[in-house]
Design goal:
- The structure is a single chain.
- This protein is an alpha/beta fold.
- It has 3 domains: 130 residues, no CATH class; 100 residues, no CATH class; 190 residues, no CATH class.
- The chain is 50% helix and 12% strand.
- Strands 2-1-3-4-6-5 form a 6-stranded mixed sheet.
- Helix 2 packs across helix 3, helix 2 packs antiparallel against helix 6 and helix 5 runs antiparallel to helix 6.
- The relative contact order is 0.08.
- About 4% of the residues have low confidence.
Length: 475
């Protein structure tokens, strides 16, 4: 009898722990946030100010040269110069944030880009025999004025940047885990023990808490004991963040890069899966395709909603917590396909082929993947992408084992936004995960996708998805 009670208490404790995973952790309100938006704004301001300076300079060149250039000719000249200048300036780093906040470096690169642009224009005018309509005096005076004006423009943008951003292009967070560390200027130190941050890949609540912290910082530095460094390094590798470990010896960590924090060496053990350019490309692709498809999908969405409402009582949409980018929990939206009293919000039980929880309409929309259509809302709000690893509920299992206990690389698949479809799905790996191979096949496909992402890969997967919308494992 005592043994039976002990088993019941252990089971209850496990259930309580499973529920606790989904409870968001309290974090300090004054945590620093990423300065990505500031850096993008600084670049945009630098480009805009340089182009405005060039336009005014060549307009003044026309005035100083006593040459009445028609407005359209001035516009064409400026557009030609501006196009070449922007291309060269991007190539030589004149618009990099560091060049924009250091006026001497930025001015030198901007002047070099302008001289290259002028040379290209003169060469084009010579070969196109445009000397009759091309005023060399006006062009020369405009270039001279631009070379004088650009340093003033660069000093102005640098002063504004230093005033607004204090010269700090990135936010730095130091997580101190049971070691002594004194914060330097511009650093925010967070005590790991106080806020329940630990290298524990067996607890989704901890992974979510770490994701909440890491997802809002440009640079995270871990200051921990030597015995904990390896665990921390493994824990953060799927966080979709730039993370470094304060460490004097680097051999066992196999770091991606070596840096410095003050006078102490650091090893970078994780990085974002996509560059800023790739993220912009992928996000733009998602938004354009989703917005273009919405008018076509709207009638189907309305019909599905009406059918669900008529078929069984309860809400049309079903919302469930799943593990997303950086191991952070988010709410995924689907059409409700089960009876409201049998809905499994934690994902403890996978749907079976003859599942008695599924409604009549639910069986049809699951078999045809119509139940996934509301996830376009997730794509629009930025928690999902059209293509990526499919998100799983925290309590998902295979052979009665949680996914991360089967292979801890499971956490690494969350270094990219989850997708409405993915490489695993087009290969036929979908449906319930009764066996270990059901999980590992998907994991290997997801890791392959992360390692070889290109925009063409996304396009190819979307085109291939049409073949598996109706699938034998969709039930």
């Amino acid at each position: 009898m005592a043994t039976s009670n002990q088993k019941m208490l252990a089971t209850a404790a496990e259930n309580d722990n499973a529920r606790a995973w989904l409870v968001p952790a309290a974090l300090p309100d004054d945590l620093p946030t990423s300065r990505t938006a500031w850096r993008i704004g600084l670049i945009a301001a630098g480009v805009s100010l340089d182009l405005a300076t060039l336009f005014v300079s060549y307009a003044l060149g026309s005035w100083f040269g006593f040459t009445a250039i028609p407005k359209h000719s001035l516009a064409v000249t400026w557009l030609a110069i501006a196009s070449i200048y922007v291309a060269v300036a991007i190539n030589n780093g004149a618009f990099r944030p560091k060049a924009l906040i250091h006026p001497r470096q930025g001015t030198a690169r901007a002047a070099g880009a302008l001289l290259c642009s002028v040379g290209a224009m003169l060469l084009a005018a010579f070969f196109l025999q445009a000397s009759a309509t091309f005023s060399r005096l006006t062009f020369g005076l405009g270039t001279a004025v631009a070379l004088i004006a650009l340093p003033f423009a660069r000093h102005f943008i640098a002063r504004v940047a230093w005033h607004v951003m204090d010269g700090r292009l990135i936010s730095t967070l130091v997580i101190r885990d049971r070691v002594e560390y004194s914060a330097r200027e511009g650093e925010y130190v967070l005590d790991a023990e106080r806020y329940g941050l630990e290298p524990n890949r067996d607890n989704p609540a901890v992974m979510d808490r770490l994701g909440q912290v890491f997802g809002r910082i440009d640079r995270v530095v871990l200051a921990c004991r030597e015995s904990d460094r390896r665990d921390w390094a493994k824990t953060v590798q799927g966080m979709d963040a730039n993370v470094e470990v304060l460490v004097p010896e680097l051999a066992e960590l196999d770091p991606l890069a070596i840096g410095k924090l003050g006078d102490t060496m650091t090893a970078q053990v994780a990085c974002t899966s996509l560059s800023l350019t790739d993220r912009v490309i992928k996000r733009t692709f998602d938004l354009c395709l989703t917005c273009a498809a919405l008018p076509l999908l709207t009638p189907l969405l309305v019909l599905a909603a009406v059918a669900i409402k008529l078929d069984s009582p309860g809400p049309v949409l079903f919302k469930q917590k799943r593990i997303g980018l950086g191991n952070r929990l988010f709410s995924v939206y689907k059409f409700r396909s089960m009876r409201i009293e049998a809905t499994d919000s934690n994902g403890n039980r996978s749907a079976a082929r003859d599942d008695d929880r599924v409604t009549r309409v639910g069986r049809f929309i699951r078999r045809t993947s119509i139940d996934e259509l509301p996830q376009r809302r997730n794509v629009l709000n930025g928690t999902m992408s059209l293509v990526g690893p499919r998100p799983h509920a925290a309590a998902s299992t295979a052979e009665d084992k949680y996914f991360w206990t089967i292979d801890q690389r499971y956490w690494d698949r969350h270094a990219m936004k989850p997708g409405v479809t993915g490489l695993a799905q087009v290969r036929g790996y979908r449906g319930a995960t009764h066996h270990r191979s059901d999980f590992t096949n998907r994991l290997y496909a997801d890791l392959e996708y992360l390692s070889n992402w290109t925009l063409w890969t996304d396009i190819r997967i979307l085109l291939s998805t049409a073949r598996v919308i109706v699938h034998r494992n969709a039930f």
